[in-house]
């Protein structure tokens, strides 16, 4: 395992520029709005006070645009779908966005938000969006690829993408657990080579445009000058270490776009925050969390739904169980996949409701990861398990009102929101921890006003889940 300290990775580079968020905000065109297609809901963890949709009819997008925010999130959950479904959803969202934006007098710019550790449908999703944009407006010059997510320890230097932290060091992402993903695995840490790998050689590594850290830390003119070279959907990979680097890139992009360039952004969570000139949101206080609730809880406990299988989540779940005493109810994957699963699920529901009346409940899938013989079969199994999980959640919220719901894992949090809580539109209130772990609030559905925490599988320290549950549980106003 190769680990590097941040100081050695950045040695010899200029310091980051000091760019206020307001500078980016002022440079934005008033008639544009970012339409963020989020392939799982965890992309919202870096932003606050923006609308989020789990359905994308034209009227849903019209509601979101009526909030007059610089960006709108649409949860496609496409990371859990097969390629054909993912492509179709991207096209559907883009077409609905153009129709709604036309009525609102806005011009959409599309963001394909994906994983900071490079898992997801690439180049399929940017290609699908580009097809719609090119029919409506004209050629797409490039795909700006920025997986960096400094708050979660993902940085890109000299076109190599790393995951880690400043304490233990940074590891090339191709050497991490994330590169072994059953569906979206890869071997390359250098983003130029990753593009070649993911396009199966259709785009050579040498044909990828690289914007290096030295350029990012010079002037927006220099960044724009590089972007002006892009043509014919050219992939563009960008070195990013911190928020100021992202803001510098945003200014360069805005300048290039004013000069007629057209891009699709394929990015990690914090890019949108920088691109719209939003300050890094403050961690939510218990008072703000309480204010997001519209109805009192009817039971003593909150529901912690854990569907992610990455090692980070397993460590966080173990920490929670060691440092608090929730009821623990397991969704047995083999029982879900069995023919007589309904009797098992009915019994499970009774257990869950009885437990949440007494206190917090951890509802998790069995830690044994059941995979298929192919990526497609693994996805199919994951969807069946997720369906059982969210159906159980839905039955709970139709019977009782929990104090809070935490969903751990990207696919899990999307399905819990749209199917478990029947949420179609919500507002992102802000983060539970610095730059990560998002609280949503909705005024509709059976879980109206229940604080909903979207918690990615691969972020946070071992104690992060424990800390979040502690804050939610200590807030006495949640159970008035």
From TrEMBL:
Keyword list, A-Z: ATP-binding, Carbohydrate metabolism, Kinase, Nucleotide-binding, Transferase
Domain of life (superkingdom): Bacteria
Every Four-carbon acid sugar kinase N-terminal domain range: 34-274
Keyword Signal found: no
GO MF annotation: an example: ATP binding
Every Four-carbon acid sugar kinase nucleotide binding domain range: 303-465
Sequence similarity: Belongs to the four-carbon acid sugar kinase family.
Name the record gives this protein: Uncharacterized protein
Species, as recorded: Corynebacterium pseudotuberculosis 258
Higher taxonomy: Bacteria, Bacillati, Actinomycetota, Actinomycetes, Mycobacteriales
